[in-house]
Amino acid sequence: MAAIAREDGYWPGAVAVSGGGDSVALMHLLASWAKRSGLPAPLVLTVDHGLRNDSSADARKVARWARALGLKTRVLRWTGARPKADIEAEAREARYRLMGAWLRKQRISTLYVAHSEDDQAETFLLRLMRGSGLDGLAAMRPVAGYPLSAFRELHVIRPLLSIDRASLRGHLEGLGQDWLEDPMNGEERFARVRLRNAMPHLHAAGVTCARIAAAAAHLSRAREALDTVTAAVLVRCVHPIAGGFQIDSVALTAAPREIGLRALSQILMQVSEQAYRPRFERLERLYDRLAAGQLGGGATLHGCRIAPIPAKRGVFGMGTLAVTRETLRRATVPA
After folding, report:
1. Which of 135, 137, 103, 138 lies closest to 16 in space, CA to CA?
2. What strands, in cross-sheet order, belong to the sheet with 110-112?
């Protein structure tokens, strides 16, 4: 935290507190650190998601715990229709949207979240199950951009990535501090819950959260090296146009495959203004079509339209493609 606080704009910040053990521990740790350091106390944000009958009571309980530490708190309520499918992802996006809007209004640039070493390991395994590439498998960063593209000026900071969940709960027990157990954490319909229930078997085989997190950290260093090379490729094969880019598909696909895939992913993300990368298997299919010269009349992916440009209009001559925001999905073939 001392190193993070030296960066301009990272403190004071708000801490996201759901009431679970990890986030309540982070609230206590940040409050204690700020007091010892003579810095302003963190602000506490909690979201009443309304997915359970007792969600409002839980939010009020979190607010009481925060006030007992002398912390200002704000309860944000998720209103409107509730999702019937992909509940985890929709609820996560709603939480970040509500907190992002509040942070922007208050001119606070940083949200502190309680992802632990266990979360790092679970995220790695979940992404492995989905066939993610290196970016998906690399460790969550301690300091990262906000996960919604509408709030590009904000940051997320994760101070607990090297601390395991059991230690955090042990800290709370030592303080005599309660926390909430979300009943949804026991529902096997959620992939993360199924994986969490399988973790004891992995630990027994020697595949511990610490070792998985260490592997993710190794991949994170590899990602940083690849980012440098990818930036150089993008300089050579991308030219900005209104609403998107012209790209040199020949140069792009001549690069080592991992570099080319990363470059293509970054182009699509920037044009679509989406914070998340395209699904890896779909990205690979599009890349293979580009490499084989089989794009035909065009394709769509990640909210973008990728289409060939006549050589006389293309900045890069033959093989020049235009990547623009998708408007008419029926006019092209999905990648």
Report:
1. 103
2. 73-77, 43-48, 14-16, 110-112, 155-157, 143-145
Q: What is the pLDDT of residues 99-133, one digit of tens each?
A: 999 999 999 999 999 999 999 999 999 888 888 87
How far from 59 is each of 12, 37, 67, 131, CA to CA, in Å?
23, 29, 12, 36
Please state which of the four CATH numbers 2.40.290.10, 1.20.1560.10, 3.40.50.620, 3.50.50.60 is assigned to the domain occupying 2-207: 3.40.50.620
What's the pLDDT tens digit per position in 82-107?
Answer: 666 667 778 888 899 999 999 999 99
Dihedral, 68, 69, 73, 76 alpha carbons, nearest 10: -70
Which pLDDT tens digit goes with each residue over 187-219?
Answer: 666 777 888 888 888 888 988 999 999 999 999
Per mean pLDDT, which range of 69-78, 248-257, 272-281 is the poorest?
272-281
- The domain locations on the chain are 2-207, 227-334
**111: its two tokens:** 């949200």
Helices and strands in the chain: count of H runs, count of E runs: 12, 12
Beta strands in the chain (DSSP E): 14-16, 43-48, 73-77, 110-112, 143-145, 155-157, 238-241, 244-248, 299-301, 304-308, 320-325, 333-334
Alpha-carbon distances, residue 128 vs 194, 205, 212 (angstroms): 14, 18, 11
Residue 81 CA to residue 142 CA, distance in Å, equals: 33
